[in-house]
Amino acid sequence: MRKAAALAAAAVVAAAATIAVRQRLREAKRWARAAAVLRDLQERCAAPAARLQQVSAAMEVEMRAGLASEDGSKLKMLVTYVDSLPSGDEKGLFYALDLGGTNFRVLRVQLGGKERRIIKQESVGVSIPQHLMSRSSHELFDFIAAALAKFVASEGEDCHVPEGTERELGFTFSFPVKQTSISSGTLIKWTKSFSIDEMVGKDIVFELNEAIKRQGLVMKVLTLVNDTVGTLAAGRYVDGDTMVAIVLGTGTNAAYVEHAHAIPKWHAPMIKSGDMVINMEWGNFKSTHLPLTEYDQALDAESLNPGEQIYEKLTSGMYMGEIVRRILLRMAQEAALFGDNIPPKLETPYILKTFHMLIMHHDTSPDLKTVGVKLNEILEIESSSKKTRKLVVDVCEVVARRGARLAAAGIHGILKKLGRITDRPDKRRTVIAVDGGVYKYYTFFGQCMESTLREMLGEEVASSVVIKPVDDGSGIGAALLAASCSQHLQLI
Predict the structure, then answer these.
(1) Of 8, 121, 208, 319, which is least surrounded by CB within 10 A?
(2) What is the reported pTM?
């Protein structure tokens, strides 16, 4: 009897041991599959120096093609009609309107010339009611002009313009526009929840000026710009060597100062300054040298603009978090990364934002506690091992590193086009103004981009290239451009 009991007990122990061994083997296979997905990702996202040089060269080729003809390149290389950037001498009171989405801001800037610079700046944000995004242009612009009039009414005694003088405004409009002068442009199409069809093809500055008149406000729109051009102006205002501006945020774009004679498609009379700001629209850059993965291809195919904005889909805040989600979903499907059942939230497109990604990537706690908290908050993954959390951080790093290195390659392409990547005896400084949430808040991304650019340039050339953060280029920059244009007009 005792012998039978002992045998039974031994059998139970053996069975338990067998189960434990099977579980360990299953666990080992699971992690091997997850590791294989990560290794494959690292290989496909790799952006070694040689490949980055190819991307840079391709960027320069596309820039030249876009400058040569309107439809010659994926890069629009838009002539902005901005041929005069702030010098620091500007004085007076100037306004800005920054309309980039479902909110807009109005700003007031008091400039005091080289000695006093920006004496005072004030701003207010306004949310646009949902119904105004699809009614009529009159209703939308009347609402905006009314907010502008209210803001003007709050001017202090120290901010009044001279009697009989009209206020001057810079207008940042972050929607697709065909610009026809520095102060006019027709709307190509609406994005970001707007759908006022009758506005397409109309001059948006004319519409705004008319709405301003209906408010009884004596004000004129002097400049129409996008946020990248505003960033360039804000950068030039504080540093006269600023030649390039990059925005790395929800989307990405670049602008730079080009010699007018290097723009074959520009048929207007030669401008006095000899320079012209070009809005590259570089988010639409595409090249066979870009390291695309199946995750990127699927994201692109399912997007609202398949085949377009490929560079932006690899480098911007709108998309990097979504790429991470797709990779984690693959790991959940093939390696049960988060357990036997796939978390339902993980299958929701765009639920994982780049902001969430950077928070997890920046987690320096020993047990990666913040990663666990975010997985729970966003994807409702209640528990995760440290090993799992580390794998999530690794995925974030691969995607961010690729984006940062490709952004550096794009900047290198611009510097190459400007002839500033070779050892030069004159050692001209080249300042690159950078704005946008990805650059400002994603520390790893910004640092990786800068170190990659230094690596590509070499220490000798890199010593004369400076990257400078710029705050609020889309707002302050628009006011500064209005000031610069006003001064320029007075000199003519």
Answers:
(1) 8
(2) 0.89
Residue 180 pLDDT more than 50?
yes
For residue 185, the surrounding DSSP H or E stretch is strand 184-187
Q: Which residues contact 203 (CB under 8 A, 6 or more apart)?
A: 180, 184, 185, 186
In this predicted model, what pLDDT tens digit does every residue of 201-258 receive, in sequence order? 999 999 999 999 999 999 999 999 999 999 999 999 999 999 999 999 988 999 999 9
Tell me the three state secondary structure of residue 453. Answer: helix
Average pLDDT for the chain: 90
The predicted pLDDT at position 305 comes to 86
Q: In degrees, to the nearest 5, what angle opens at C-alpha 33 toward C-alphas 31 and 38?
A: 90
Structure-token pair, residue 77:
């290389």
Q: In angstroms, rounded to a whole number, what is the distance separating the alpha carbons of residues 297 and 150?
A: 48
Residue numbers annotated as active site: 192, 227
94-98, 163-167, 197-201: segment of lowest average pLDDT: 163-167
170 CB contacts (<8 Å, ≥6 apart)?
A: 94, 95, 96, 97, 221, 222, 223, 225, 230, 477, 478, 479, 480, 481, 482, 483, 485
Question: CA-CA-CA-CA torsion for 230, 354, 300, 68, nearest 10 degrees?
Answer: 20
Q: Give the CA dihedral 171, 172, 174, 180, nearest 10 degrees.
A: 60
Tokens (6 digits) for 240: 């006269």
* Residue appearing with tokens 């796939």: 342
268 vs 262: CA distance, rounded Å:
13
Q: Do 122 and 56 meet the contact criterion of CB atoms below 8 Å apart?
A: no
Phi, psi dihedrals of residue 134, rounded to the nearest 5°: -140, 15
Place 178 in a pLDDT band, splitting at 50, 70 and 90.
confident
Q: What is the C-alpha to C-alpha distance for residues 2 and 8, in angstroms, rounded to an integer?
A: 10
DSSP string, 142-173: HHHHHHHHHHHHT--GGGPPPTT--EEEEEEE
Token readout for 474 is 């889309």
Those residues whose C-beta lies under 8 Å from the C-beta of residue 77, and which sit 6 or more positions away, are 63, 66, 67, 278, 279, 280, 281
Q: Do 262 and 68 form a contact (C-beta atoms < 8 A)?
A: no
Q: Determine whether 153 is exposed, middle or buried from the number of CB atoms within 10 Å of its CB (0-12, 13-18, 19+).
A: exposed
373, amino acid identity? V
Q: What is the C-alpha to C-alpha distance for residues 302 and 316, in angstroms, rounded to an integer?
A: 17
